[in-house]
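Pipeline run #58 for the internal structure catalog. This entry was flagged by the ingest filter as a single-chain record with no existing model, so it goes straight to prediction. Upstream metadata was stripped on purpose; only the residue string is passed forward. Reviewer on rotation: M.T. Logging verbosity set to normal.
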Amino acid sequence: MVDRERTAFHEAGHAVASVLRGIPIDSVSIEARDHVDWAGRCLTADPRINDIYGEEVDEDEVYRDHLLVTLAGPIAVSIYTSEPWDLGSPANGSDRDAILDLALKLFESPPGPDGVIDASKPVDACAASVTEMLQDNWPAVKRVTFALLQHGTIGGDQVREIVDEG
């Protein structure tokens, strides 16, 4: 079971990190999926994604920004619950796959003896950076969470205003 407040903190983490990394947001929302579960979505509109193969765009910077934003959801929940963050946790859901995909694009690690590429060390380093960023901006995360709990969906301009309040 995923509770409403936990989902709101998760999406608020993504949203605040997006604002702090300069990635435009279309909207952030939480909604009841059924009688027990909640789902959330933070829709970003990063114009750099369309130019990822263009010469003017530093694709590592784009991937790094999106890795930090993707990590911010589960890490916000970790801060909120005081539970340690763990990439392997089932609570990370689809974010886990996106985190690993972005990490593999960013960090070229040779495969281990078993042929598996281990991206955990660079992901852990990024997670430490995201944890610090969210802790430094925790009042903004709480304000966005409160807005989500009140309204269910908030627009990108509203998210930016809420983050900029502090």
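catalog note: Strands lie at 25-32, 38-44, 153-155.
catalog note: The chain is about 60% helix and 10% strand.
status: ready for reviewer M.T.
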